[in-house]
Design a protein that fits this description.
Elements lengths: L1 H16 L4 H5 L14 E3 L6 H18 L2 E6 L10 H11 L6 E7 L4 E6 L9 H16 L4 H19 L2
Parallel strand pairs: 1-2, 2-3
Antiparallel strand pairs: 3-4
């Protein structure tokens, strides 16, 4: 009985230490937690100018009105986050910004050389994972190597929406 009590004490003691704030778990050591995202364009890596962020927001809002699909864009700064938390951060940002089954979350980290697009369940019939990977490899990856972050993001979003509209006919 004493052994069970010790195990329970250890279990609850250790689980009480676990972090419950997803942002705290995703920050790199010795850095402040990332601020909560407040816009459908959350540029933690500072890949875009304020004007470009505004243009991307307008583009994504127009596509949302046209298709009913919300697009959320998050860039991840490798100086402030750990690579293994890349996907966790973009999912968290999507959750905070109201992503649902009819949303697309685009996560980008130039520093980590990673792009991830997560399609909501109601998007997949129009934009499969296979087609999403084709867009990443054909549109995003080649131009990202040239550091054309804004233009490649615009091109990628436009291609995603083109495929959705085509599949929605």
């Amino acid at each position: 009985m004493k052994d069970i009590y010790i195990l329970l004490l250890l279990f609850f003691g250790i689980s009480g230490i676990a972090q419950t704030n997803p942002q705290a778990a995703t920050s790199a050591p010795d850095t402040e937690p990332l601020p909560e995202p407040t816009s459908i364009v959350t540029d933690y890596e500072h890949l875009y100018t304020p004007y470009q962020e505004e243009q991307l927001t307008d583009l994504m809002n127009r596509h949302h009105l046209e298709t009913g699909i919300k697009i959320i864009l998050v860039t991840i700064n490798p100086l402030k986050t750990q690579k293994e938390h890349f996907e966790e951060i973009i999912i968290h940002a999507g959750d905070v910004l109201g992503a649902d089954k009819k949303s697309i979350i685009i996560g980008i980290s130039a520093g980590y050389h990673r792009i991830r697009i997560i399609n909501g369940a109601n998007v997949i019939p129009y934009l499969s994972d296979k087609k999403t990977n084709e867009i990443i490899n054909a549109v995003f990856v080649p131009q990202f190597g040239e550091n054309q972050y804004y233009q490649v993001t615009v091109n990628g979003i436009n291609e995603i929406v083109r495929v959705i509209k085509e599949g929605n006919k």
